[in-house]
Design brief:
Layout: E1 8-9, E2 21-25, H1 36-42, E3 47-51, H2 68-80, E4 90-95, H3 97-111, E5 116-122, H4 140-150, H5 155-158, H6 161-166, H7 168-179, E6 193-198, H8 206-210, E7 220-225, H9 236-248
Helix pairs in contact: 1-9, 2-3
Amino acid sequence: MARELGWIRQFQAPRTDSLPPLIVFPHAGAGASAYRVFAKRMSQDFDTVIVQYPGRQDRLAEPAAQTLPELAVGAFEAFRGSARDTGAPLTVFGHSMGSIAAFEFVRLAEAAGLAVRLLVVSAAAAPHRIAELPGHPTEDEELLDHMSALNGTGADVMASREVMRMALPVLKADYRAFDAYSCGPDVRVAAPLLVLGGDDDPFVGPRDLYGWEQSTTAAIEVNLFAGGHFYIDENIEGVAEVLAGQALAR
């Protein structure tokens, strides 16, 4: 069971009390619990928390965010008011849409003077390219086809089209926020970037991943794993090793 309500969830206690913080931003349509297995593995190396967006799971009664910066602001304000805001350098991870929310979170953190050890973005085009991308489907059947092509929000959910249909309202809200996002090409963070992706992702290719070079004034490393848009499901150990190796070496 999640330890606290609001924006922050922790499903797995850290291995020790001295581990550095890791903040995880889920993909579109997902709740924090979709990252329970990922968080369990990452908690070997980090004090891992997952952002719970409004409009889903135990926040179902709340309206979904209208913009991605709104998600970042909500998460940032919740983090600043929590016991985890100890001054320890942050590692911030986002998958797909969550990568953009994570980027905006890091912008807020750096503006507030917080140290960011590493920004990890996964299966996403760079912020300055989002406005160039085609919009997501808005009709139910087309959106269901799109979800099937992504092979997410997790293989267990995607196995049933009727189960997928239940996720449509929040997915539509997230995609509206994503499609409305824009970011200038000169907007950068100071944190180094680790960029991850699947080598068989039908929507995000190597060009998209390397485009993140323009989003930081620091170093960038790109790593590809076998798999599609949700390659993490089959590569949790490998992702964890790369992420921890990059973050904890800084």
